[in-house]
Amino acid sequence: MQHPLRGDEIQSKKLIKIGVLVIILILFLGFIREASPYLFKPDPSSTDDEIQIEEVASGLGKPTCLTWISSEWLLVCDTHTQSILALELSENGFSKPQEIISNLNNPHGVLLWEDSIQETKKIFVSQAGSLISWQIIDGENPLEWKFGILEPIIEGVATGNHQQNAIIQGPNNTLFWHSGSTCNVCDEDDERSATLIEINPQNGNYSIIATGVRNSFDGTWVPNVGYIFTDNGHDWSGETYPPEEINLLEIGGFYGWPNVTEENPIPIGSIPPIGNYTPHSSVNGIDVRPTNSSLPGGNITLYATVFGSWNTVIPVGKEIIRIDLIEDHSHPQGWGVEITVVIKDLATPLPLKFHPNGDLYFAEYAHGTLYKLT
């Protein structure tokens, strides 16, 4: 004969069932939150009546970089097909994206480089763990280009949580390469991780020009100011710390990671950011507003993408921000920023670049779409 369960045993089993259901519900809601940017196409809106937003192209796979090589041609890094795509812009809009370089490994940067003395052109690609190039030996546009053999410039750089990102034209025809950390917080085994690197593109010689840079996605030259770059702080330190950073390059400078903590936000010997933004929001693509742009701005204005993050309870990011530089004599580098959200309700905005005519373009990573701001 079975004994009926006692009241406390029944209550205990009910609580266990409720607990399991609550855990399942939390996991389900977490999955929906993280998956929704990839499942549902965004309906972006402008916070400034002066700014108009328009979707202008699709089929970009999972775009991580945009590079205008002329007024007519746009190059795109696509980590879905592991290739570089080319699109032509005409009076009728954009052509269908076409692969011009394939079989890459998470490309995050592409740059057309010219040597006026030797009259040569090269295309450089930043991918996970390496920087590679091809000489362009013939062709008037990307679809007609004929390439020489693949030339490894730098190989074997450590990858992990992050990888190598933007490749930007440096001073004196050198290159600036953004190399992310392999971890959240750690001492790196590879001295090239969590740095900015300057490279001689002719012989591959390089030097590390900034350290303590956890995950810098992109940077841009600002006339009469210098090189400004984004850098995203570590996770697992709570909702309100650390902020994402807007930094001004000082050659040889140390930018704090992994020593930075909430109690010691500016470690001894480190350079503080000229601007901070919402913690864990992931500020990535950045570009300076040219003087011919119709977009609103001050004397010195940049625009940047804010991708969003999984490491917060309340969702953050998924927007485009305007960054106005202001003189700040209290900062050791003499600059500060004022930040304004200009586009909201995005999904996964990542690369961003101004067209030579002053219009601003950015791409949605999850949906492979290209937008224009005017």
Summarize this structure as a short list of keywords or feature phrases:
28 strands; 1 helix; mainly beta; 374 residues; 5-stranded antiparallel beta sheet; Neuraminidase
Task: Record the SSE blueprint.
Layout: H1 7-39, E1 45-46, E2 53-57, E3 63-68, E4 73-78, E5 83-90, E6 93-94, E7 98-101, E8 109-115, E9 120-127, E10 130-138, E11 146-147, E12 151-154, E13 164-169, E14 175-179, E15 195-199, E16 206-211, E17 219-222, E18 226-231, E19 244-248, E20 253-254, E21 275-277, E22 283-288, E23 301-306, E24 319-327, E25 335-344, E26 349-354, E27 360-364, E28 369-373
Parallel strand pairs: 16-20
Antiparallel strand pairs: 1-25, 2-28, 3-4, 4-5, 5-6, 5-7, 8-9, 9-10, 10-11, 10-12, 13-14, 14-15, 15-16, 17-18, 18-19, 19-21, 22-23, 23-24, 24-25, 26-27, 27-28
Structure characterization notes:
By secondary structure, the protein is mainly beta. It has one domain: TolB, C-terminal domain (Neuraminidase), CATH 2.120.10. The protein is built from 1 helix and 28 strands. The chain has one helix spanning 7-39, and strands spanning 45-46, 53-57, 63-68, 73-78, 83-90, 93-94, 98-101, 109-115, 120-127, 130-138, 146-147, 151-154, 164-169, 175-179, 195-199, 206-211, 219-222, 226-231, 244-248, 253-254, 275-277, 283-288, 301-306, 319-327, 335-344, 349-354, 360-364, 369-373. A 5-stranded antiparallel β-sheet has the order 1-25-24-23-22, with no helix packed on it. Strands 3, 4, 5, 6 and 7 form a 5-stranded antiparallel β-sheet that branches. Strands 8, 9, 10, 11 and 12 form a 5-stranded antiparallel β-sheet that branches. A hairpin with a 7-residue loop joins strand 24 (319-327) and strand 25. It is globular and about 90 Å long. 41% of the residues are buried.
